[in-house]
Write a structure and sequence with these properties.
With about 325 residues, the chain is an alpha+beta fold. It has helices at about 65-85, 100-130, 140-160, 165-185, 190-195, 205-220, 230-255, 260-275, 280-290, 295-305, 320-330; strands spanning about 15, 20-25, 30-35, 40-45. A four-stranded antiparallel sheet has the order 1-2-3-4. The longest helix is centred in the middle third of the chain and has 31 residues, at about 100-130.
Length: about 325
């Protein structure tokens, strides 16, 4: 049977962790970590998130705020779990999410949010204020502040990429994207197919953060106050609104492929070239293990693309090489 579309929407997402991958599908997530002895350990869990079952989490432009907080909490939990394999403690004691672990995760998450607000919200405003003696136009000042904010973000991403551990984390990040792209392009999830898939994806957290910066520029351009203290407070208070809008944009980008979506996604995709690197086969194996713990890709291919992969998961579609080249260009 012919395939229905060139790109599907699987709904799965994830993140790189220490020597591993976390993949999430609805409320179910799994962390796959390669231990020092080469064994891949997969830990499936459920995460319902804050305000579970509340209708508030279904409201557009509001749901993004809670999803962002949930992703921060779950991300910290998974990072702590993966790190436990390289410490003396038993990793099974950190995977269950005890009260002590939950409290620590909450504190670290709050600190991370506060630090991010300071670096990416307050600091750009302060640096931009240094130009007030030379620039009298308020609109131009807002643009300068936004430009400084984006520059700080790019320098931050580029700076941490110089760290050896971060570069390895970026390779696992690439493996995560490649697995999702492989599935959403309608190819069986094999190491070979994943290797030939793009490491860039529009629903990436890197692109989300860029949208946050871009949307904040627009909001701060039109919403203004004169008092310096009120300016800082207003910027902090508006960040949930910015996150909510950015979430809707990133969801739209993941589901559609029109020219407007490709244009607004292009800057984030370019930044992903810094935050993702090409993984090796061992990393891809870890990513596949994480995906298969939360997502039935064979059923997905059968229902969405209308064909059944063979027992080895091989792809029987002709012209794969040329199609991969076209898809790579589409994602830029």
């Amino acid at each position: 049977m012919a395939r229905k579309k060139s790109r599907g929407y699987s709904g799965i997402g994830g993140q790189a962790v220490l020597e591993g991958i976390m993949m999430k599908n609805a409320e179910k997530y799994a962390v796959a970590v390669r231990k020092q002895n080469g064994e891949i350990v997969v830990e499936p869990e459920n995460y319902q998130g804050i305000l579970h079952g509340s209708k508030i989490k279904e409201i557009p432009f509001v749901r993004g705020i809670f999803n962002f907080v949930d992703s921060m909490i779950l991300g910290m939990r998974c990072l702590n779990y993966s790190a436990s394999f390289y410490e003396e403690e038993d990793p099974s004691q950190t995977g269950g999410g005890g009260k002590g672990d939950k409290l620590l995760t909450a504190l670290v998450t709050c600190f991370s949010v506060a630090l991010a607000l300071g670096v990416f919200v307050v600091l750009p405003y302060y640096l931009a204020s240094l130009f007030e003696g030379f620039v009298r136009n308020a609109s131009l000042m807002a643009i300068i502040e936004g430009g400084i904010r984006i520059l700080i973000f790019i320098l931050y991403v580029w700076g941490i990429s110089a760290m050896k551990d971060i570069r390895r984390l970026y390779r696992y990040h690439g493996a995560e994207h490649k697995c999702i792209n492989c599935i959403e392009r309608g190819r069986p999830l094999t190491v070979n197919n994943v290797q030939h898939s793009s490491r860039l994806h529009r629903r990436c957290g890197t692109s989300f953060l860029f949208f946050v910066l871009f949307v904040s520029i627009i909001l701060f351009f039109f919403i203004r106050v004169e008092n310096p203290v009120e300016k800082v407070v207003l910027r902090i208070l508006l960040m949930p609104v910015v996150a909510g809008i950015s979430y809707e944009i990133i969801q739209l980008a993941g589901r559609t492929n029109n020219i407007l979506v490709r244009i607004i996604s292009a800057p984030g995709m370019l930044i992903q070239r810094m935050t993702t690197k090409e993984p090796d086969k061992a990393m891809i194996e870890v990513a596949i293990a994480a995906v298969e713990a939360v997502f039935d890709w064979r059923t997905y291919l059968r229902e969405f693309y209308g064909y059944e992969p063979d027992g080895n998961g091989s792809d029987d579609v002709q012209g794969r090489t040329s199609r991969l080249m076209r898809e790579e260009l589409e994602d830029i």
